[in-house]
Amino acid sequence: MTPITGLDLTGFTALEPGVWTDGQGLFLSVHFFDLVPDLPASLDEPDRLRHGLARFAAAAGAGLIEAELGEVDALPAVRQLIKVPQTQGPDGHGDGGRGGHGQAFVGSWTVPRARCSVVVKVQAGEGRTTGLREALILNEVGPMRYFTAHPYGADITGGLPSHAADDERWDARFPDHPLTRVRAALRRIAPSLVLHEGFKTLPPFAAPAALS
Q1: For the structural domain made of 4-200, what CATH number should be given?
Q2: pLDDT grade for 1, boundaries at 50, 70 and 90
């Protein structure tokens, strides 16, 4: 059970309570966490928030592509896109013992309150053909312009590297790529989300102590 009372599920079918799929590798899930959100900064401090989220992702062996502030049903929220090494197969349910295969892309809207949060997550992984988007963009822009310092802090190291192929400007050229599909689904779903009034009236999320 979550405080979400409305959600556009057009194109999705239920797999289990709170989890849906479009049948083409995209998975949608909703979550309620009854504990203080683990965000590294207040949504009123976007630079510190993005830097902290990027550090979290890198420490976990992943890579934060982007973190943007917005609203979900008039409440402050943060949208994240993260890439992770894929340890599941293209169907999202295991890789048959073959080991990692390409990357998976995880997008989320997090709506934090003082002592709880709602998260809507969309994810998709690469299929049997991996790295095509990256290879084509690398060839187009050249190696000197391909790999970049992390946009949220040059001191962020580790995890998956930042590079030009993750930029949204390439999405139109790769409409079936999992990153394109996750990014588009997050934007389509967000305006349809309706939250319970009891959740909306909870105290807002406060800034934690500064990161060491």
Answers
A1: 3.40.1000
A2: confident
